[in-house]
Amino acid sequence: MKSLNLLILTLFLSAFSLSNSQELKSPNGEITMMFSLEENGTPTYELTYKNQSVIKPSHLGLELKDDEKSLLDDFVIIDTKNSTFNDTWTPVWGEEKEIRNHYNELAISLKQNETDRVVIIHFRLFNEGLGFRYEFPSQQNLVYFTIKEERSQFAMTDDHTALWIPGDYDSQEYDYTESKLSEIRAKFDAALTDNASQTQYSKTGVQTALMMKTSNGLYINLHEAALIDYSCMNLNLDDKNMVFESHLTPDVNGDKGYMQAPCKSPWRTIMVSDDARDILASRMTLNLNEPCAIEDTSWIKPVKYIGVWWEMITGKSSWSYTNDLPAIQLGVTDYSKLKPNSTHAANNTKVKRYIDFASEHGFDGVLVEGWNEGWEDWFGKTKDYVFDFVTPYPDFDVEGIHKYAKSKGVKMIMHHETSGSTRNYERHLDKAYKFMKDNGYDAVKSGYVGDILPRGEHHYSQWIVNHYQYAIEKAAEYEVMVNAHEAVRPTGVCRTYPNLIGNESARGTEFQAFGGSKPNHVTVLPFTRLIGGPMDYTPGIFEMDISKLNPNNDSHVNSTLANQLALYVTMYSPLQMAADLPEHYEQFMDAFQFIKDVAIDWDKSIYLEAEPGDYITIARKEKGSNNWFVGNVNGNEARTSNIKLDFLEKGKKYMAIIYADAKDAHYKTNPQAYTIKTKKVTSKSKLAQLSVPGGGYAISIKELK
Ligand code: NOJ
Ligand code: CA
User: Fold this and answer.
1) Using an 8 Å Cβ cutoff, are 608 and 699 in contact?
2) Which of the four pLDDT bands, split at 50, 70 and 90, describes residue 18?
3) Residue-by-residue DSSP string for 442-460
4) Does residue 499 contact residue 481 with C-beta atoms inside 8 Å?
5) Whether residue 485 has its Cβ less than 6 Å from ligand 1
6) % of the chain exceeding 90 in pLDDT
7) Domains in the chain and their CATH numbers?
8) What's the rounded Cα separation, in Å, for the pair 84 and 27?
């Protein structure tokens, strides 16, 4: 009898015990994720695409601080849940009117034998790739815990070619290096640049989004989505075995994350395709973020703007009002007693000229930097209290400028340089946003130059990630749109908070005035930095010889003028700047017309040609109109782009204006040589267009009525 009971019990248990391996397929069946537990209870996953291995068996888990038993092994599966999601949502602004969110999900609940702790790993498989995250549900045995390191692995199948920037806790403002994974170690030091803070932790550490290509033509992209209350992930490469492992940004104590269950990690994302265009077309990062948290979004609007900015970046003008630094350092705080310098750009006369130019050419906004007290002594001293964000210099009349801009139908854009002192910014944030609203500013460009305060924290550690999020959410309360520079690179959070209309968080156009960027940089960014969200890249430079602005600056903009135009289409952002000086646009009014015409919000985007590091061609349909815009950016080698205009509506006639490189144009030697041609086109038209090194073309296509 006893043995019969035992037999029944055993049969019962085996019928209900969960298999140690689980399979998940993408909706189209092309991608498969296999989850399994190793013999010692270590969670592992692997990924295949069209029956080719993409991620070899890779471990998952987290190492906890001190004497806590880590969440790495000794697990059993206690539950699995499969579900499917297929829906569309409407972004407030975006590359398309509606976004499909279609995935199959597998949630695996794991229990650690020794501790009874439960971790749920969620896998979401889209047609373009996998997202996975750790969830720590509410439970008695896991409440507070500190992460020593996340140990999520991404085991590569081979020595792929990668476009990478070096691992850093504080800067992403690097040119990309293209190399084999095995060459990262040798090329690491050369990849560090003077302007980056060079917080190295390993000679094989790289940042995400990381773009790779395999020898048999698969494109693989690793990044993260929904980075909320967690530190930013870098990847460390074990270059013997070609295994990447997560490396989180530490705080001042070296800890990686302070957690309280219930809580979740961000999603780790792996996109894969045999067509590079699919990586650009993917909305996986956005889809892995929560829906919009702002109820009334009517105040959030795409913005095309100019700014009192490039002249300071090139060194032609200054942010500071006076050269009398010694007096300020000795405690003089009354600026009206100090002698103004002749180079302070944010003065009433100049700002009004910019407002006039914006109004005349249909720009929504004017950004002014250097309007507020503090720029004489803001940088490099790790000072806690620099700016108060509300006190203008004597030659900047906030109220008068507001009235003038309003009379011209132009919005002013605020600038908050925090000098890296998140502490000081939070101290002033409410007052600063209120000051903006009182003076007609709807959008702010914030910045985090220099070492972070509190001292010892990093730009990408959990606490500072939380600061950026706090600023975005607080801004939403005031109906303020945010464009944060030097903040952590985006991870699709703009879906939840669409008032985050831009970030820099990569090497922007400013570096063209700091020695120049690689001519193919803009063929890489859409595959890397832009995977997480839009970039305030600040394109539109027409004068490539910076010494013409400042004889002491011999930097050169490594791009043709036609390439600069194309960026408005290829570098998707609801916030687009025309960054050059009005007088430079006045010299090339025919080409400037494209910047005036180009849309900044879209119904549809079609990725016509793409190869990371070499070229990108995109066509986009303006939101709510039948106008189309096409942009092509080209890398180091001349190339003829061949496109079909079959995205146009059949039976309709259109007029295309093609802004292209002249045959003898070149980013270095002849960047301003362009041609403008007008042509009638239909959906049957084809185009073969030459783009020179560092070149490109831009087309505006309007329906003929
Ligand atoms: C760096 C930013 O990227 C740049 O746009 C800004 O002008 C300066 N910091 C000053 O805030
Ligand atoms: Ca910057």
Assistant:
1) no
2) confident
3) EEEEEE--SS-BSTT--TT
4) yes
5) yes
6) 95
7) 21-287 (2.70.98.10), 507-705 (3.20.20.70)
8) 9
> Phi and psi for 473 in degrees, rounded to 5?
-70, -40
Q: Which two tokens stand for residue 244?
A: 């990447």
Contact 146, 259 (CB under 8 A): yes
Supply 302's token pair. Answer: 């795409």
Among the listed residues 96, 173, 486, 510, the single catalytic one is: 510
- Whole-number Å distance, alpha carbon 509 to ligand 2 midpoint, is 9
How many Cβ atoms from other residues are within 10 Å of residue 114's Cβ?
9
* Inter-axis angle of helices 561-570 and 589-597, nearest 10: 0
The CA distance from 10 to 166, in Å, is 54
Nearest-atom index, ligand 1, CA of 309: 7
Please give the distance, rounded to the nearest whole angstrom, from the Cα atom of residue 429 to the centre of ligand 2.
21
Q: Is 239 in the pocket of ligand 1 (CB under 6 A)?
A: no
C-alpha 173/C-alpha 170 separation (Å) is 9
At residue 198 the predicted structure's pLDDT band, cuts being 50, 70 and 90, is low
Six-digit token pair at 540?
């539109």
Q: How far is CA 96 from the centre of its chain?
A: 18
Q: Cβ–Cβ contacts within 10 Å for residue 445, how many?
A: 25
d(CA 305, CA 558): 23
Collapsing DSSP states into helix, strand and coil, what is residue 148? strand
Quote the Cα angle for 290-296-298, to 5°. Answer: 110
The residue among 647, 654, 642 whose CA lies nearest residue 686 is: 642
Amino acid at 68: E
CA 552/CA 550 separation, integer angstroms:
5
How many residues belong to the chain? 705
Q: Residue 391 is encoded by which pair of tokens? A: 């006190």
637 catalytic? Reply is no
- DSSP element (H, E) containing 286: helix 284-287
Whose tokens are 């801004």? That residue is: 475
Q: Is the CB of 536 under 6 A from ligand 1?
A: no
CA atoms within 13 A on the CB side of 151: 15
Alpha carbon dihedral 359, 363, 365, 370, in 10-degree steps, equals -80
Question: Alpha-carbon distance 257 to 639, whole Å?
Answer: 47
Distance 449 CA to ligand 2 centre (A): 7
- % of the chain with per-residue pLDDT over 70: 97
Integer Cα distance of 94 and 477 in angstroms = 22
- pLDDT at residue 85 tops 60: yes
pLDDT at 16: 46
- Residue 546 CA: distances (Å) to CA of 541, 555, 669: 10, 6, 14
What rounded mean pLDDT belongs to the chain?
96
Look at residue 13 and tell me whether its pLDDT is greater than 80.
no
| Torsion, Cα of 109, 113, 117, 120 (10° steps) | -20
Q: CA 63, CA 285: separation in Å to the nearest integer? A: 26
**Is the minimum distance from the CB of 416 to ligand 1 under 6 angstroms?**
no
Angle at the Cα of 176 from the Cα atoms of 174 and 178, rounded to 5 degrees? 155
Q: Pick the ligand that lies closest to the CA of residue 486.
A: 2
What's the mean pLDDT in 153-163? 98
**CB-ligand 1 contact for 504 (6 Å cutoff):** yes
* 235-267 as b/e: b if 16+ CB within 10 A: bbbebeebbbbbbbbbbeeebbbbbebebbbbb
* Other CB atoms within 10 A of residue 700 CB: 23
pTM greater than the 0.85 cutoff: yes
The yes-or-no verdict on residue 417 having pLDDT over 90 is yes
Contact yes or no for 553/546 (Cβ under 8 A):
yes
Residue 408 is given by DSSP the state T
How far is it, in rounded angstroms, from Cα 395 to Cα 347? 5
